[in-house]
């Protein structure tokens, strides 16, 4: 399974494309620049989440885990990213913590 199947990264790319479209039609240069920064943030977030998901799968040794495991990992990555985390290693660790005993 790829990160794109579970993370809905296409949605983040869609947000980026919409931002780029708005930048293209912005009348003022400062508006254009603002929309370009927003697009860049959406694309960066999609890449970070995909990197975290791929790393989590590698840590699981990607040995045919049930789809539910991948869905939970993806949801936890999205949850952590929504709270502002952008470090792929921390996102991976957060996603994998669901199956580990907290001590």
- The value of Rg in angstroms is 16 Å
Give the terminus-to-terminus CA distance: 31 Å
Structural class: mainly alpha
How much of the sequence lies in strands comes to under 5%
Separate helix tally: 5
Number of strands: 0
Helix content: over 70%
User: Which parts are unreliable, with pLDDT below 50 for 5 consecutive residues or more?
Assistant: none
Topology diagram in text:
Elements: H1 3-7, H2 9-24, H3 29-59, H4 67-82, H5 88-96
Structure at a glance:
With 103 residues, the chain is an all-alpha fold. The protein has helices spanning 3-7, 9-24, 29-59, 67-82, 88-96. Helix 4 crosses helix 5.
Task: Characterise this structure.
- This protein has 103 residues and is an all-alpha fold.
- It has one domain.
- The chain contains 5 helices and no strands.
- It has helices spanning 3-7, 9-24, 29-59, 67-82, 88-96.
- The longest helix is centred in the middle third of the chain and has 31 residues, at 29-59.
- It is elongated.
Protein traits:
single chain, 103 residues, mainly alpha, 5 helices, elongated
């Amino acid at each position: 399974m790829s990160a794109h199947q579970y993370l809905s990264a296409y949605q983040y790319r869609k947000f980026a494309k919409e931002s780029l479209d708005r930048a293209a039609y912005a009348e003022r240069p400062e508006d254009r620049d603002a929309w370009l920064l927003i697009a860049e943030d959406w694309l960066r977030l999609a890449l970070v989440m995909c990197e975290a998901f791929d790393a989590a799968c590698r840590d699981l040794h990607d040995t045919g885990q049930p789809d539910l495991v991948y869905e939970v990992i993806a949801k936890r990555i999205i949850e952590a990213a929504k709270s502002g985390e952008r470090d792929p290693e921390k996102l991976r660790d957060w996603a994998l913590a669901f199956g580990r005993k907290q001590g």
